[in-house]
Design brief:
6-stranded mixed beta sheet; 3-stranded antiparallel beta sheet; 576 residues; alpha+beta; globular; 19 helices
Amino acid sequence: MHGPWGRLFSSETFSFREGLTHRERTELSYERLRLVNAAVPDPCALAVDPVALTALHEHAGVADAGTATILSIHFNLFLGSLLDHDHAGRDLAPYTRMDRIGTFLCTERGHGNDAAQLETTAVLDRTSGGFVLHTPTPDACKFMPNTSSIGGAKDALVAARLVVDGEDHGIFLFLTPLSDEGGRHLPGVHVSRLPQTASSPLDHCETRFDHVRLPFTALLQGEHGRLTPQGEFSSTLRSLRARFLRSIGRVTMGKLCMSAYSVGTMRHAVTVATRHAHSRVTSAGTSRQRVPLFHHRSHHAPLLDALSTTYAATLLQRLAVRRWAEASGAERADAERLTAIAKGWITWAAREVMTECRERCGAHGLLLSTGIAYQLAANEGTITAEGDNVVIWVKAAAEMLSSGFTPHTVDELPPESRTLHHPLHLQNLLADLERIPRERARARLRSPNAGRGLDRWNGAVESALEFVGAHAHRLAGQELLSVARQARSPQARQLLTDLHRLFALRQVAAHSGELMADGRLTAEQVRRLPDAREAVVVALRPHALVLADAFAAFGEGEPAQGQPRLREVAGEAVPT
């Protein structure tokens, strides 16, 4: 699954090119998009396979942020949406051959996170039997999609209100040609370039429609909404909001794609920084001895933290993808919520890890060709794309506080009888850190002084968001510990267990006061936390290169000089 993409994106074709203008870099991203498409045996099969699609994103973001963004739009949001709706008889060949590139127009200038309130309309014209797509106000301009002439001919799926005889049936997707084969925009399609962003190099635009006529077949239909040529509408969903969410259902898969993108860039950054620290030589301190930079605790301790977080993030991503791929019926809601929680936690963790790795590389880390600074800026886009992190966490928190969460049973053993070195005890402490803010948020919501409506929620939301973050942290630790137990090699089992210990201790130490106040840690255990962390750092330090090289961040994952290969150390335990 990962090998072919690792080899493709680590090839010379995808190496960083110096001195390009923003337009040239954007054009290069579209050229590379077509190279990726040529390497895909079946684009339709890729679009409907969560495991394969996220694997592609894990590697594409490392090589070219622009290519990763537009392939995500084309394969997931555009082609995936076409396949998720009734598509019998629809010719998809222009998109699978990439004669025409697909884009996705949902959010508007005045409607981002409240996209359910968007204003663009598609009115049924009974005379022609088709639709009239129109942007009624300046705030209804579609905001930020890649709709410029760069890249060639483009079609879009446009989210618009289906209006029949004056009745609004909700928001649906309409297949809309934007430009001809030469990239020239069609009559009624007005596109304005937006200012350059700090994230991935892309042709971000505002797009407005002036009474654009579409055929009846432009409407993407399904059980959530069908329209006969005679204008008779039917739907299995009564709620307009539910119809909208079903129409843009591919956004959930998009969250998985964004977290996959960030996971890939995290692994690249920590590999670069770890290798650099082993090859860069500096003073040993008071003596004239010269040692690798990695020998200094002030340098390798933060990198080991980054390694543990990156392993945990990779495994949380695998869990979210697996749950989404396997979910059906009532399980879909839980899987969708996990996808949102994982996306927020992973993309924020990527920012933290890449920032640390950039600093550990010093001036070298600022070079765009090194990749870290370039990917760090692009990662800001993943934090906002497919649902702003805070917004989707607020939604997840509200669901989990009401009925969507069963808390773990509290460990009844007294804290003095447990040790900070035992992984199950550490995992129980992560569960405590999940429970404490949940109880606080629920208490605030139930307080007679909580007020009403937004005031009531405002009093609880910070604790609620802390609860969601702690939940993600516990799940990530749980997956890391589970993989450690499955390792065939004793050495791999020990390394992965130590990574889990470091990952958990960092979180426990950051909240030790709260845990002690809740009776989950003793004062003596809090005092011993720095020593416990120090012991794990000492144990992991000699194995940092093995752990970094296991990510295969450069295609085949050639081991560093003198280091054993991944499979000699970790068997099949480490995800690559």
